[in-house]
Design goal:
alpha+beta; FAD/NAD(P)-binding domain; D-Amino Acid Oxidase, Chain A, domain 2; 8-stranded mixed β-sheet; 9 helices; 26% strand
Amino acid sequence: MSGLFRRRVFLTESDVRPRYDVVVIGGGGHGLAIAYYLARNHGVRDVAVFERSYIGAGGSGRNTTVLRANYKTPETIPFFKASFDLYRTLSQELDFNMLLSQRGLLWLAHSEASLRVQRERALLNQAFGVETEFVGPDEIGDICPVLDLSGGGKRPVLGAAWHPPGAIIRHDAVVWGYAAAAQRHGVHVHQGVEVTGVVQERRRCVGVETSHGPVAAGKVVCAVGGYVTPVAAMAGIRLPIVTHPLQAFVTEPVKPVLDRIVASADLLVYISQSARGELLAGAEIERYTSYSTRSTWAFLSEAASRCIDLFPFMAKLRILRQWTGLCDMTPDYSPLMGVTEIEGFYLNAGWGTWGFKATPIAGVTMAELVATGKVPALIAPFALTRFRDDRAVSERASAGTH
């Protein structure tokens, strides 16, 4: 019988070497994608990824699995469209089933102000070749019949931006797919190894201190999600980032009932159904700052109430579990990508509530920057210096819910 099965070893352990050409701090989707594309696209294989816990332990394993490209600025739309396009064929590229499921995303509006935002979103998306259209209540009812258009009798649905390509994908599979593929290309993936310091000589990064000893490196990339502020501080870099918790929950599994992703800009909640039948719901970031991943009753009660306003049948479901991730929020809600004031120390941060959606293109562009020294056009607007130059990229209209 053993001949009928293909046995695969996805990750193997390697000794930490005293030197690598490139060190990537953070073993989430972004860090692993950067390492993979360095090896695959540029032949830079002497790369180590250091993760203090297990791969995907941070934001990559605590998000809500939604993929979309319907952003709100001329800078972010092409970037996330490129990422979405890469996701379409990622399972085949990495030889790892990621359970991509196209659902279509409805972004609801319950007020005149939100209606204007969703109309603008649809028009701007269309200008950049992203499939989004504005739809009214009748069309919304056809697209998602189980949705209560009265909003529980409190906030009637007035219209929505309809994004047919919107999808969900298995987040753990994305992490493991990149990790296994990177390792096949020669990358070392070190779990349980913490970076405790950044070593510099005359304002140039030359390596890191780790829980396994010093490691020299030609270049170092910081891709640690919500923990970027303390890691950057090791290099003496102060960032315009504040970390906030973001919570979510799932219900007990039920038969397929919701084949769309539904987000509400006014109720600040979004709902989808997982491949296992769970109804998954998330909301906005918590207003307080914290590195705690403890979940709260306040979130659960408020988010559940909003879900029931949109989908009354959810009132009968039991909560299966809830969790919390950390979001590194910039003042303009757009990422920080590129070089820093420390030569050889690169930053991939500020992903807020949508870092998972950017995983493939962040990997491609950051790998190109590290390998060639040239800033790709897609990430040029997200430089750390944009705040000094008064060139903020405001994406707050795409936040709030996910």
